Amino acid sequence: MPSYRLYGLLVILFGLVIAVALEVGRRMPAPLETSLIALPNCVIPCTLGIVPGISDRADVTAVIERVGGYTSDQTTPTRSAFSLRDRAGSDLFFVVADFNFADGQRVGAFTVWRLVANADLGQLSDLLLAGYTPNRVIRSCEGVLPRQMAMTFAFEDRLSAFFLLRDGLNPQTPISLLEVRAPNIMYDTALGNLNCSVESRWQGFAALWRYFPGIP
Is residue 216 part of a domain? Predict the structure, then answer.
């Protein structure tokens, strides 16, 4: 019996921690010139104050208002889509929140695309320093340029990232797409970006030839 009580207390404590993180995320300013996944008080799976499986439509609406997001014509009854712009009015990120969890009442997947090279969605080291190790590493096929790679992280691969590789894989490799999903959401936008792909494995930071054997 004591073990059940302890488990119940841990579940309640975890819920309180997530709730506090969400509330702090709602209140904090969003400096778009900094990394979106390295913002204080909102660490993955929290992104921009949204946690898939927990956040609802009101939370997404609050985020759009807080960051000054511009609603996209891709918004539907089951999806909120908006862009984030810098102070000059240029689009930096495109964001999609799919309401496909808990009978459509909560966010099932939250996806952020980096639209321009100087937009800082984050880098590979941000994920590793947060304690995530790649579960799957998938690269583009030989001959596909620019070379691409997708990785999944976390329990049940609920976190995915997509990278465009110019040089070797290093801590500063920028994230081009980030997606966080709730439990039992099976599709993966990051992997879907690879039209032709080859399953690889995590070999750490290395030159491209370690992941792409066809490179001389």
Answer: no
Q: Kindly state the DSSP code that residue 8 receives in the 8-state scheme.
A: H
Residue 98 within any structural domain of the chain: yes
**Any domain includes 140:** yes
CA 94 to CA 121: how far, in whole Å?
11
Q: Could you give the 3-state DSSP secondary structure of residue 157?
A: helix
Q: Where are the beta strands (DSSP E) in the chain?
A: 70-71, 79-85, 91-98, 109-114, 136-140, 147-153, 159-165, 177-181, 197-199
59 contacts 22 by C-beta, under 8 angstroms: yes
List of E strands, 49-108: 70-71, 79-85, 91-98
What is the number of residues in the chain? 216
Q: What is the pTM assigned to this prediction?
A: 0.82
Which burial class, exposed, middle or buried, applies to 141 when counting CB atoms under 10 A from its CB (0-12, 13-18, 19+)? middle
Q: What are the backbone dihedrals phi and psi of residue 14, each rounded to the nearest 5 degrees, phi first?
A: -60, -40
Domain count within the chain? 1
Amino acid letter, 146: P
Sign of the torsion formed by the C-alpha atoms of 185, 78, 25 and 82: positive
Q: What phi-psi label fits residue 83: left (phi over 0), alpha (psi between -120 and 50 degrees) or beta?
A: beta
Q: Which amino acid is at 148?
A: Q
- pLDDT tens digits for 130-165? 889 999 999 999 989 999 999 999 988 999 999 999
How far is the C-alpha of 62 from the C-alpha of 42, rounded, in Å? 15
Domain, as residue range, for 154: 2-211
